[in-house]
Amino acid sequence: MTDTTPHADGHANKNDSKDKKKTEPKQIGKALRKAEHSIEILEKRHDDDIEHRLERADASSRLLSSVWDEPPAQLLRFRPGDQLTDVDGGSTPGFPGNKAQGERFIAISSGEIARYQQLLYANGTKGSPRRMLIVLQGMDASGKGGIVRHVFSQTDPMGIHYHGFGAPTKEEQAHDYLWRVRRELPKPGWISLFDRSHYEDIVMPHIYGTFPEDVWRARYDQVNEFEHELVDSGCTVIKIFLVITKDKQKEHFLTRLSDPTKHWKFDVSDLDARARWDDYMAAWQEVFEKTSTPEAPWYLVPADNRWYSRAVVSELLRTSLRDMGLSWPPLNCDADAMRRRLDEE
């Protein structure tokens, strides 16, 4: 998914590559400073009317997006013909900066996400159906939990719902496979994050044969219809698959085995899944081909560099919230009358 455009002679110019490495960190640093300055002005200006403040917030967010060579929403979106196995988990497509700049971007973006999340929540309290579902998938140790901690570091817990899906319980097995998913969907104004999801109910039987093939294959259409209904009712759906290399996963597993504070993260089943790596890649490839739709697309995000995958998710989330085009709900009473009542106390 990376762009390696050759020169006229058919070969990449090495000097251009060197110049790019020298100049791009400076350029991204300048863009980040501009974005920070714009946000500082926005936070100090309280005399503007609501529409002007929203326009300033939009401009600040777009300035922050300018650090990307190409928007992740375009660059990393799954398209027909894309192959999961072609994605380099160690790459950082679209982001010309280094780790320190990536982490700085996340910190700035997290503050803007908090602003838009509050706006979304405020609208939900006043009857707006707008809400958001973020699906995080990936092989073990791909960094799903870290994304939740870092990208949402500045948000208000009120309005954020996190749920990790494991093996179905006996109660859940007694219902349709989407029953437990529907229970965790976001309420109006809320953002729900799924660490694993209903897609496990397709991938696992595909690999392990726990259901007849006609049963799990029918779920592709069922899931597409389910997500269509969500989007049609005002829910934005963002589906992210974190692409980690097998070598990087091994590195994380060894760290977990060596660090007593991380033993709780390791399970023998992690190695069982690793042994069937190719089967998982094939199953997920089919998922993307069958369920990446215009209204609920999949994004394949390289995740060996966790700062990069967090930056991508932060950008996808912030721009999706921004593009909802929400405004602050108006006061539902006479402000002057309320002031008089307070003055009369």
UniProtKB/TrEMBL annotation:
> What keywords sit in the KW lines?
Transferase
The Polyphosphate kinase-2-related domain is annotated at: 107-322
Q: Which GO terms describe its molecular function?
A: phosphotransferase activity, phosphate group as acceptor
The family database entries (InterPro entries) matched by this protein are listed as: P-loop_NTPase, PPK2-rel_1, PPK2-related
Highest taxon of the lineage: Bacteria
> Where is region (Disordered) located?
1-35
Q: Which GO terms describe its biological process?
A: polyphosphate metabolic process
- Which NCBIfam families does this UniProt record tie to the protein? PPK2_rel_1
Return the PANTHER family for the record: POLYPHOSPHATE:AMP PHOSPHOTRANSFERASE, POLYPHOSPHATE:AMP PHOSPHOTRANSFERASE-RELATED
- What name does this protein carry? Polyphosphate--nucleotide phosphotransferase
Give the organism the record lists. Answer: Bifidobacterium thermophilum
